[in-house]
Protein 1
Amino acid sequence: MARASSTILAFTILTLSSTLLPTNSHQFSTKLNKREMGISAKREKLSHLHFYFHDIVSGRNPTAVRVAEAAITNSSATGFGMVVMIDDPLTAGPNMSSKIVGRAQGLYASADLSEIGLLMALNFAFLEGKFNGSTLSVLGRNSPLSAVREMPIVGGSGIFRFARGYAQARTHFSDFKTGDAVVEYNVYVLHY
């Protein structure tokens, strides 16, 4: 009899707990309230950021390091298959002694067999002013031998949540012997 009452008690506890505990609905998507996300009352802003990107591949402390290359790279005029990981400083002016406003962190890869064309996948991680702690994400093609290159801004974090826009890059300085370069960036971004 004690065994039967223990079984009934255990069954009752399991039944009650399964009805009282929240169920996992495994719902794929839900409609969100814009106000709860903090965007309904706010209007989109258009911000312009101007800075210089220092890609340093030479010397004792490079900020851009080749991490992979295809066997074909040695015979490819474009370096096709080469992958470079970066943590490049972003400065207010073209000189490295200028104030650091952020870092460009990510990678670029040679993705074109016929001309120098890079796939850029990186974040601009800002360290200055109201943008401190916020990021912008770039994903696009960069033709470094063109006078002006345009790459899409595909998102961001912090102040730049829901961001979209574009970055224009112009080479300010390039040393073909060392591979070092300073690139001027003008970034135009819509955000809340």
Note: DSSP finds two helices and nine strands in the chain.
Protein 2
Amino acid sequence: MLRPSTSIPRRGRGPLWRDPALRALIVQIVLFAALALFIVFIVDNTLSNLAQRGINTGFDFLDQRAGFGISQTLVEYTSNSSYGRTFIIGLLNTLLVSVLGIVAATIIGFVVGISRLSSNWLVAKLAAAYVETFRNIPLLVQILFWYYAVLQALPSPRQSLSLFDLFFFNARGVEAPSPQPLPGFDLTLIALAVAVAATLGLAVFARRRQIRTGRALPMYRIGAAIIVGLPLLVFLVSGSPLDWSVPELSGFNFSGGITLIPELAALWVALSIYTAAFIAEIVRSGIMSVPKGQTEAAQSLGLRGNITMRKIVIPQAMRVIVPQLTSEYLNLTKNSSLATAIGYPDLVAVFAGTTLNQTGQAIEIIAMTMGVYLTISLIVSLLMNLYNSRIQLKER
């Protein structure tokens, strides 16, 4: 007796144009080709227009003589230096104020953010007043305030305000002693590098030891003792291979020492205070995201408040804080371009400003400036993402 077949007949694969994966690939190829053609059209059209107006393109102008001075330089520079040198000067000045601002804003922001949650009424209200005041005043206004209303109101160099006859404050900036390395100072630097490496190695050992035995080492005190003590010991044994250049009034200005120009000081203070107000709120929200039971459990174990905050609350809050903190670091770096309002020689003022006006190479200069800010932002994001991936909870 024959039984009817119950097997399902196999369907053919069908035409290729019904394959979802193939259709998606074709759409991506078409979109990529359209974008490439659009970019080629824009570039070709721009070059044609520039050629019709007799405007030369290219980066040959970077080798030409600049012919103007810059108030602050971290590397050697004269008016005979090239435009390429002005690009480096502007880049270094931008990185300088960005790094200083990130460090100061982070410290101030964490202190204010933790203070907002203080049980002390006065401390909490002062922290709240700081946040509500500085985050609601435009950054440009704050920069102008610190520069014109505060620093430019200082006396002339002859009537400088003195601190221990070592630091002098006047309208031209802050004069401070500068170290002058002597032969043998390299040993101190080597000792510092060795101390840092030894501290990092000891920190790894202490962490593994704590996981294995539950015993913690006071790494903050041990690390500080190693990093400070070893270079200091080498410094003293080698006969103090370091001299100090003290600023002295000579005529209408100071000679010797190092000068912190008022433009840098005003920009640094404004960026730090403004960004710290936002970081404080980020820190506060991160701490509040940690379940209250964590703090109660620490208190039941007899842990002190500072230990609870440092060892239990902050490490867990960092998982919430870091992603938002990355955005504030990026904003601070980009906001440093407002330095052109007070004449601080950053990348925008020196390269996208003076150099652009003298050479007329707008496309090349603006493209390089945009590329620098994009590169800095991507590097900051990469570093913060790497750190964020390390502190995230991982399943075992």
Note: Residues 20-52 form the longest helix (33 residues).
Protein 3
Amino acid sequence: MSSQPVPAPAPPLSRREQILAAAAELFARHGFHGVGIDDIGAAVGISGPALYRHFRSKDAMLGEMLTSISEILLEGGQSRAQRHRQPRSLLAELVRFQVDFALDNPALITVQERNLGNLTDPDRRRVRALQRRYVEVWVQAIQDVVEGIDEPSARAAAHAVFGLINSTPHSRYLDRGQMAALLRRMALAALTGTRE
């Protein structure tokens, strides 16, 4: 009888993280303007006004949520670019990372896609700057793999693949593993014209 190591349980979420997770689910389901502070409080078992101990406003929650998503994606993209020196390997890892993030965080992807316009101007500028840096990682990876592709085409290709990947986390046709494999194949085929 072999003993497999048991993965350590994930640390419990802090109250602040619980609030952001609940807010993401509610914003994804009902839209930013369709959710009140009391709704978010009820989702985590506290009064709406008690949320103000953690966030100054609902706008601040959204700002932190979208900034955090953008920071996670940028850090993930940059760390893969540092670890994978072979261009095709890097592109495959970027695709895998984006697919996994989208499938594991469907509410966050939905909120990110629908609510950029609801951010305050400073938060919107910060999120946009982070997103541009993440796209640049992809643009470079695409140009390193796809011979002769120019920068505007590589940028358009990156955004098209984000659209493909981010539009499908709510699909009920395939289980998570099947959907991840399908999205990876489709994204790589779209970017390179091959099935890797």
Note: Residues 61 and 173 are 33 Å apart (CA to CA).
